[in-house]
Amino acid sequence: MLNKEIWFVTGSQHLYGPKVLAEVADNSAAIVKGLNETQKLPVNLVCKPTVKTPEEIHSVCQQANNDVNCVGLVLWMHTFSPAKMWISGLNELQKPWLHLHTQFHAKLPWSDINMNYMNTHQSAHGDREFGFIGTRMRKERKVVVGHWQAPHVVEQIDGWCRAALGWAESQSLKVARFGDNMRHVAVTEGDKVAAQIAFGYQVHAYGVGDLVNVVNEVSDAQAKAQLEVYQNDYQISDETWKDEHAQKMLLNEAKLELGMEKFLTEGGFGAFTNCFENLTGLTGLPGLATQRLMAKGFGYGGEGDWKTSAMVRIMKVMGEGREGGCSFMEDYTYNFDKVDQVLGAHMLEICPSIADAKPRLEVHRHTIGVSCDVARLLFTAKTGPSICVSPIDMGNRFRIIVNEVDTVAPPAGTPNLPVASALWEPKPDLNVSAAAWIYAGGAHHSAYSQAVTTDIIEDYAEMAGVETVIIDENTTLRQFKNELRQNAAYYALKQGV
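^ that's the sequence the OP posted. Answer follows.
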């Protein structure tokens, strides 16, 4: 993602003279160089000239708005920058921004400190003035406090940069819907116009026949070449390779994959949905094809769930370069035991980016929507901390629900369940988390990630100006229900009449 930029803008004023301003510029450049050299940021941090007047501030904000590679700004007041100078610029700034409350030197030079040092290094002074104007103008922003070399500061900047990348992707994302939503299902519906206003992404509907026409253009030679890719990427038994029917099913998935990828790529789509109830003209519900497209970075939502599909794509962008993957997911069934657990899966479509080992490629019967054999990847998810994210339409606003979970190894295999899956223990426990999820209106679908953190999702939601509720180890139902009531009042007042 290093083709994208975060601009580092330092505020000051002419009061301190050219010598101080030269030192301010040198220090800012050193901070940017140091942060880039950590190689922990997913973007290129770009040092911009120190802004010292309302005109310079306004100009850099306009430039940021018009630069397609700029996905956000880090703002820092090295010295005192009178905050009224920032009003016109912040009023027009359309990119997200982070307020970095730091100073160049970590420790004070006790024996040498004088008023010149105090005037030059007064972030404690200048950032509080700047903080006031952000609050006075009701601007959503991230505030990160600490020395710029501290690991926790770098980590927070990294997370916010990832949220900014997700927000930039959200602004240009297009979701293709092949067919409609599953009939009579409520939570996968929603207001697409309101979603585009809130998040920026577009949702376009296509008849399944539009996709079938492209799939039918894939040649047998192209499909056969794809089988070599499958052989290299996955575990495939000799029986599967020798079975003529299985070979036919693999070729079928290859044609679906290549046709769907061509349709999505040529149309500029980053995410898609389909529905097992609407497959007219297709040979079956895509299994391996959908899994591989997700692994390539496309978002996906089953049964026409365009909100989750968009969220999967956005979270894939956020997590790029980090260990762990992101997948469409569904809370499928429970394991009530000493520690209650959730078995997450779907009929066919779980992304292999979350797999704990090289997936197995097998062909099994699929009986929902259409009865036919479908090739699919089988695996279990890596263990470790993960999150499940559900964006829902509340009618008058959107809400993003996050549940922190611990993914664990299954106690036994499931030889009669030919689907990919993840087993997790939700925080604080299943009793509280499931009740809180239901009170919040969370969907049965989610975007599951091992690479994206709760903080990143919170930052993204604040950029969008939408509600976020978190279910974690500290959640109690009394507190959570009160939070939902308070949020309802806040967002009603925020929207006005």
